[in-house]
Structures are given as C-alpha cells and as structure tokens.
Design goal:
Helix content is 41%, strand content 12%. It is globular. The chain contains 15 helices and 12 strands. By secondary structure, the chain is of the alpha/beta class. The strands form 4 sheets. Strands 6-9-10-11-12 form a 5-stranded parallel beta sheet. Strands 3-4-5 form a 3-stranded parallel beta sheet. Strands 1-2 form a two-stranded antiparallel sheet. The N terminus is likely disordered. The protein has one domain: Alpha-Beta Barrel (TIM Barrel).
C-alpha cells in the first residue's frame, strides 16, 4: 500500500497541485500525448488566451482538514496542459474554492500558507501556462490582509479567490473592509466564486443538483447586490472584482435593481448610492460561462464586452469549447472578441 507521501507526490506532479473534477481519468485518457497546441488568431494577430476560472486542489492542504482527493479523480499538471493545448487556452489562472472558512485561526493559516506556496511553485515551474489567485482566510479579515499582501509581493500570485459569503456573512459586511482596502491598494483582482446558499438546502434537494445549478448563481447574485446596495463599491471604487458564472442572475434582471429605490424608497434610505445600481456592473468583471451565444451577447449589452473574460470552470466540463463560444457569437467586433479571449484578463492579471 502506498504511503500518504507517495500519494501526494504522484497527485501533485512534484508541486502538490492536483486538477480534480468529474471523470478526469477518462478525460486524461482521451487527451493525446502528441496533441498540437491550438493557436487563436484574429485578423492576423495571435491572441494570448486566458482562462480566469480554472480549479485545482492541494491535497496536502486538504488533508489538514481531514479531506482528500481520490486517486481516480486526479489529473496532473502535464495532462492539464495538454487539455489546454487542445482547447486553445494559453494561460490558466488557478483558484481553489474555500473549504477552510470554518477552520480556527492557526489551522486556517497553515492551510493558506501551504496552498499559496504550492500554487507559487507550480506557476514558477510553468510561468507561461499558469498564474494563480491566492487563497485567504477571510473569516479572519486582518489575517487575510497579510496573506494577500504576502501572496502578491512575496509569491507573485495575481490576486485572491474568495467565496460569495463567509460563514453566512455577506462580503459587504464592514468587517471585511480592511481586505477590500488592501486589494484596492495592491491593484489586484479578486475572483468571487460562489459556494451555494446553505439555508436553501432543503428546497434544493432532489434531481438536477439544484444546490449547484441554481444555488451557485444565486449566491453570486446576492453577493454582488449587497456590494452595490451597501455601498462597498462606492467605498472602494478601484476594486477589481471578477464574478464567476457570468455574475449569476444579476445581469439578466439588473434593471429591477434600478427601480426598487423608486418603488420602495424607504428600503433604500440607509445609504445614498453615487450612481444607479446597473452602472456598477460596468466596473465589475464577469466570466463568459453563460452557455449560449445569445446569453453572451446579452451579458455584453448589460456590462460591456470589455468587462467579460473567458472562463471554463475547468476541470468540470461546464464549458468544453470556450474559445468557439466567443469566436462564434454574433454581434461582436474583432477587438471585443480579443478582449474577451485574453486581452482584458491579461491586463487584470499582469500577463505579458
């Protein structure tokens, strides 16, 4: 029987990073070792494509909370690069969904240190293919501030990935203001990825994986709405926030947010916003995981094509053809397609 150390070494391809998801052993087997790297060219210009929404895991850090990555669900870095080559993705911005928000301070600090160091090691080994968002223990805001600064200044990570709430507390809670202030000061991107809405769990049982299908976009919708209506985006206008899954449902029904204070002014008396709620969407960024050309066009009409960045949700197969999703959608200029495919993300993440 292999030891835990052997398992971690095999799982992480020397760096301790594993790309985990659904049926990845099958996906890896279908990826040819001799696959050619797809290059994306628009009107003669080679586009460096960037995937801002790519998951990974650090088995060593997960083990600290009694969690593990099963061997059958592992995909090592070399296999992930071959899959990126086939899809036409030049650079993946790696992030880890927070599983540590319930951890006590010392344990959370150890988890974050391990994860950020392993992410930095992988990015250093393959800097032309990977960048990463830092993990932070946001349940301890002052600790998260230091973790973000260390990750950016010492480890070269490009920002932070956080959940859509923290142990039931909204991201607009003033206790998180020191973190927002530090992110704004550093000029780095914060990627918001939902964790579902646990209070709705009883209603989301049954077929359809509704706690993910509905719950994840709903949490993003709630998180962004609070950041707008509680004045967080006014307080920190320089924040670079990127919302997963096209921002959830908010861009699809954002105009209702403009009308609520007109219809129910007593519900908006605690704070005076500097602009209409829909206008804040144009200072946020959104990934392209909205599934249809019509949805992508609608998102662009609401937030601006310059605010959309390509995402795959890799290795989960939500978006298997992310390049063609953007290239084949009607109504975009070449410059807008280039922006969505990589130009905007390249600027946000400091990718040359």
């Amino acid at each position: 029987m292999s030891t835990r150390r052997d398992f971690l070494r095999n799982a992480g391809a020397m760096t301790g990073v594993a790309f985990v998801g659904c049926n990845l052993s099958n996906a890896a087997a279908q990826t040819s070792a001799t696959s050619r790297r797809r290059q994306v060219v628009i009107r003669g210009r080679r586009i460096k494509t960037v995937d801002v929404h790519a998951h990974c895991a650090i088995p060593e850090a997960m083990a600290l909370m009694g969690l593990k990555v099963t061997p059958e669900s592992l995909l090592i870095a070399g296999d992930r690069v071959r899959m990126m080559d086939e899809q036409g993705i030049d650079v993946a911005a790696l992030s880890i969904n927070p599983f540590w928000y319930a951890a006590e301070r010392d344990l959370a600090a150890q988890i974050i240190k391990t994860q950020n160091e392993r992410l930095a090691e992988l990015c250093a080994k393959q800097p032309e293919r990977f960048v990463a968002f830092a993990s932070v223990a946001l349940q301890y805001p002052e600790l998260a501030v230091q973790q973000l600064e260390d990750a950016v200044k010492k480890l070269g990570l490009r920002g932070a990935a956080i959940g859509g709430s923290v142990n039931g507390e909204e991201l607009s809670n003033p206790k998180f203001n020191p973190f927002w202030a530090k992110a704004e000061e550093l000029g780095v991107t914060v990627f918001i990825h939902p964790q579902g809405v646990p209070p709705l769990a009883p209603r989301l049982k049954g077929s359809g994986f509704l706690d993910n299908t509905i719950g994840n976009p709903l949490e993003t919708t709630i998180a962004l709405s609070h950041l707008i209506f509680e004045g967080t985006l006014d307080r920190f206008p320089g924040l670079k926030l990127c919302a997963a899954h096209g921002g959830g449902y908010l861009p699809s029904y954002a105009d209702r947010s403009d009308h609520v204070c007109l219809v129910f002014p007593d519900r908006c008396k605690d704070i005076v916003l500097k602009k209409k709620p829909t206008e804040y969407l144009r200072q946020l960024y959104f990934d392209s995981i909205v599934f249809t050309p019509q949805a992508l066009k609608h998102l662009a009409e609401q937030v601006g094509a310059a605010q959309i960045v390509m995402g795959t949700d890799s290795p989960y197969p939500w978006s298997l053809t992310p390049i063609d999703h953007i290239l084949n959608a009607r109504g975009f200029s070449d410059a807008e397609r280039a922006a969505m495919l990589g130009d905007t993300a390249g600027k946000l993440l400091g990718i040359r």
